[in-house]
Amino acid sequence: MKISDLFIYQSLSKEQLEFYEEYGYLNLGKTLTDEGVIQMREQAMSAWDKEKEAFREDNTWLQNSLLVNIHHKAPLIKDFYFKGPLLPIANQIIGPNIKGVTSQLTFKMRGNVKPFGWHQDNGYGELDPYNALTTLTAFEDVDEDNGCLRLIPKSHKQGQITLKKERDRNKSESIELEVDESTAIPMPMKPGETLILNCWTLHYSSGNESKTRDRRILFLRYADADAVEVYNNRKPRIGRLLSGITQFDEVRNFESDL
Q1: How far apart are CA 32 and CA 193, in angstroms?
Q2: Rounded distance between C-alpha atoms, residue 32 and residue 194, angstroms
Q3: For the chain, how far is it from start to end, CA to CA, in angstroms?
Q4: Residues 212-231 pLDDT 10s
């Protein structure tokens, strides 16, 4: 089966780029065909079931909801991450030099009623330049019942929010900002659709209240190839170079054998 049977490529229009710049988010529509959703979901669940147990109230959000470096465990997700339809979108928004900096499953299986608090993705890993791109691809219908994203349009315009208390990264502490939710809107998604977010866009998701449905999403993040970690003495963020060039040898060589 060809990649074109699984992935749906597109180029953002001037109007779509303007919307993203103004509102801090954009639903791209389908980036996976129906067959692509089926195959990618099967590979994702195979990896998930090998490493994860059922939801437990006393587990951390990382234990209950995240499976990191999924591109190491699912070959189709690796192809989607490295050379799929989101890379040219990242090129349009960020520029020609791109690295992949996060790949993970963000699952809220039925029974997982814990919310993710309000946060900016750049709060979990502050990168400079401040143009990192979050992408969320749905493996099934996602709505308010099973814990879809809620976001605040235009919230990215306030820039980086300084946390009142520094997170202990070794304890997988979550961020829960206090925000005015009066303008927040839900982001329902259909299987195979991708939502993209500015690194400063405020968002949140409630728990999965459905008794019969899971909420399974693929989270990928892209950044400028020379992006550095502000919180880590401005060392380069390590990630696979996906397009263009970088000044950092450690980025150029990272996962080059994959």
Answers
A1: 7
A2: 9
A3: 21
A4: 999 999 999 999 999 999 99
pLDDT at 75: 97
CATH T-level fold of 14-253: Jelly Rolls (2.60.120)
pLDDT tens for 184-219 read 999 999 999 999 999 999 999 999 999 999 999 999
Q: Which two tokens stand for residue 181?
A: 């939710």
12: Cβ contacts below 8 Å, ≥ 6 apart: 20, 26, 89, 92, 93
Tokens of 142: 């996602």
CB 76 within 8 A of CB 40: yes
Kindly state the tokens that stand for 108.
Answer: 């809220």
Judge whether 150 and 205 are in contact, CB under 8 Å. yes
Give the Cα separation of 97 and 252 in Å (integer). Answer: 11
Q: How far apart are CA 187 and CA 143, in angstroms?
A: 7
* pLDDT at residue 170 is higher than 80: no
